[in-house]
Amino acid sequence: MKKFIVALVAGLTLTGIPVRADNDLKAHQNLWAALEEVGITPALNDMRCFQGGIDGYYHSYGNELIVCQDNSNKPGNVATWTANDMDTLRHEAHHVVQDCVDGTIGDGRILPLFDDYDSWHSFVTTALTPAQIAGIIESYEGATPETHKTELEAFAVANSVDADMIALIVRDVCGAAQ
How far apart are CA 55 and CA 68, in angstroms? Predict the structure, then answer.
């Protein structure tokens, strides 16, 4: 099934037609529900969001995913969702998928969904511009090549795959990892 999911995700961007994930709130609520169904605790605007410059994070060992909303001004405050907030949810949800790729969720092993370099590279370079790729690598300065690879893949997915499709992938790949 993983090969089918990889082919489906790759097919979304490799058609030569520019693809951009949409910002449909209902689809993102579906993604939020999918995360909960596989044992992830998604939350908004916890204390760590106000300690400096993050849009969100996924903590594998704690099975928690946090979105730091752009317009929130204090912990626990729920703000109106922005396009960046939704992008962050898609990005962090893909890290959940990457956590499940090896068949186990919550083990701290984050692996690319694409298991061969050529497919991964083709997907990432179709979904992201060279400037975006350079900016992402620069923002993760000092990280391992593996971290660069998983981050680039997550940014590419968030940029080009709709929330409903990511929810389907979360349920499929991570449902089997429980």
Answer: 5
Instruction: Note whether 112 and 101 are within 8 A (CB).
Output: yes
The rounded distance, in Å, linking the Cα atoms of 33 and 157 is 19
Q: Which residue has the tokens 């949800």?
A: 93
Please write the tens of the pLDDT for every residue from 4-47: 555 555 555 555 444 567 888 999 999 999 999 999 999 999 99
Q: Is the dihedral of CA 166, 31, 93, 25 positive or negative?
A: positive
Helices (H), the chain: 2-13, 25-37, 83-100, 117-127, 130-139, 145-160, 163-169, 175
pLDDT digits (tens, 9 = 90+) for 116-147: 999 999 999 999 999 999 999 999 999 999 99
Q: CB 4: neighbour CB atoms within 10 A? A: 9
